[in-house]
């Protein structure tokens, strides 16, 4: 397919896909002649990209034209849309047109509907850290793509260690591949534990510590997250999602079946319900109900421009006090 639209905020995964497309499309000996990058700020960028894509490649290989950071998926003027409608069906097999954007294209827009007819749209959005099932699937998929055989425990360890950081995932898998070499046996967790850097102090870990009422550890995790430039609002979004999930579980356990609980809480694998039940066993419904207003206050304070570290510290102390043993 000669036209692609890559979008998403996972910059590493997107750039890796661009590099793969480049390697597949271009003959390196002729790449300087056949590789055109059109920046978003270029005058008449879409027209320039389409004109270049219609130009036959020089020498061997194909031509790759990359329109970077475009907003056509959100807003496309009628003249530009008409130009795409006229040009895309005529793109020669010797050319590949690539559009990239951090924002999701509007599925209702005429441009998006038309592009899907003549091209391929691929998503490279960062998986939310609380969607551990999807992160686990991503770890397994990347390992398979690299031809690596991992034991299930190793997959679990990597999921915990790298979270949704695809750059870190590739680095850790490369490290494991170099160490394991041509050994056909699956890589065991013991080997991975020795080599994999657990560099993520995740917001999910913070949620677990909060529900234990462990104030010193929670404050330390907040500092670690902020020192790693984790956005404060992203930390809060993870906490809200996790505590809302626990509230759903506490409210529905004993009232609905595991399948019904999974559907209500948007959990893809109902088998996880058993383990999640253990996480909320020591918590009261009242504690979880009172936690969400505190988290929403935290989100509101941050959006009003309050100091991130001080505001997070204050609310973390309040949440730990709420979940301290004996305070139910």
From TrEMBL:
<dbReference type="Pfam" id="PF06144">
    <property type="entry name" value="DNA_pol3_delta"/>
</dbReference>
<dbReference type="InterPro" id="IPR005790">
    <property type="entry name" value="DNA_polIII_delta"/>
</dbReference>
<keyword id="KW-0239">DNA-directed DNA polymerase</keyword>
<keyword id="KW-0808">Transferase</keyword>
<dbReference type="InterPro" id="IPR008921">
    <property type="entry name" value="DNA_pol3_clamp-load_cplx_C"/>
</dbReference>
<dbReference type="InterPro" id="IPR027417">
    <property type="entry name" value="P-loop_NTPase"/>
</dbReference>
<feature type="domain" description="DNA polymerase III delta N-terminal">
    <location>
        <begin position="4"/>
        <end position="117"/>
    </location>
</feature>
<dbReference type="InterPro" id="IPR010372">
    <property type="entry name" value="DNA_pol3_delta_N"/>
</dbReference>
<dbReference type="GO" id="GO:0003887">
    <property type="term" value="F:DNA-directed DNA polymerase activity"/>
</dbReference>
<dbReference type="InterPro" id="IPR048466">
    <property type="entry name" value="DNA_pol3_delta-like_C"/>
</dbReference>
<comment type="similarity">
    <text>Belongs to the DNA polymerase HolA subunit family.</text>
</comment>
<feature type="domain" description="DNA polymerase III delta subunit-like C-terminal">
    <location>
        <begin position="203"/>
        <end position="310"/>
    </location>
</feature>
<protein>
    <recommendedName>
        <fullName>DNA polymerase III subunit delta</fullName>
        <ecNumber>2.7.7.7</ecNumber>
    </recommendedName>
</protein>
<keyword id="KW-0235">DNA replication</keyword>
<dbReference type="Pfam" id="PF21694">
    <property type="entry name" value="DNA_pol3_delta_C"/>
</dbReference>
<keyword id="KW-0548">Nucleotidyltransferase</keyword>
């Amino acid at each position: 397919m000669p036209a692609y639209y890559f979008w998403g905020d996972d910059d590493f995964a997107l750039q890796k896909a661009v590099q793969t497309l480049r390697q597949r499309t271009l003959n390196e000996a002729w790449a300087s002649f056949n590789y055109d990058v059109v920046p978003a700020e270029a005058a008449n960028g879409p027209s320039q990209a389409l004109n270049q894509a219609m130009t036959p490649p020089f020498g061997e290989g194909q031509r790759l034209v990359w329109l970077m950071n475009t907003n056509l998926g959100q807003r496309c003027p009628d003249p530009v849309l008409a130009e795409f409608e006229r040009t895309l069906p005529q793109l020669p097999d010797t050319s590949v047109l690539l559009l990239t954007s951090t924002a999701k294209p509007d599925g209702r827009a005429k441009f998006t509907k038309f592009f899907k007819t003549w091209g391929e749209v691929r998503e490279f959005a960062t998986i939310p850290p609380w969607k551990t099932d999807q992160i686990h699937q991503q770890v397994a998929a990347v390992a398979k793509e690299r031809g690596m055989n991992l034991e299930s425990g190793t997959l679990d360890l990597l999921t915990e260690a790298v979270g949704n950081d695809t750059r870190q995932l590739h680095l850790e898998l490369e490290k494991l591949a170099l160490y394991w070499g041509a050994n056909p046996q699956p890589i065991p967790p013991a080997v991975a534990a020795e080599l994999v850097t657990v560099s993520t102090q995740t917001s999910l870990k913070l949620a677990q510590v909060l529900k234990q009422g462990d104030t010193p550890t929670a404050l330390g995790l907040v500092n670690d997250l902020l020192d790693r430039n984790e956005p404060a609002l992203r930390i809060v979004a993870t906490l809200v999602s996790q505590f809302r999930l626990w509230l759903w579980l506490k409210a529905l356990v004993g009232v609905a079946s595991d399948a019904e609980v999974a559907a209500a809480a948007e959990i893809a694998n109902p088998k996880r319900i058993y383990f999640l039940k253990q996480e909320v066993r020591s918590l009261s419904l009242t504690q979880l109900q009172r936690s969400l207003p505190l988290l929403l206050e935290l989100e509101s304070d941050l959006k009003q421009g309050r100091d991130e570290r001080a505001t997070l510290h204050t609310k973390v102390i309040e949440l730990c006090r709420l979940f301290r043993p004996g305070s139910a």
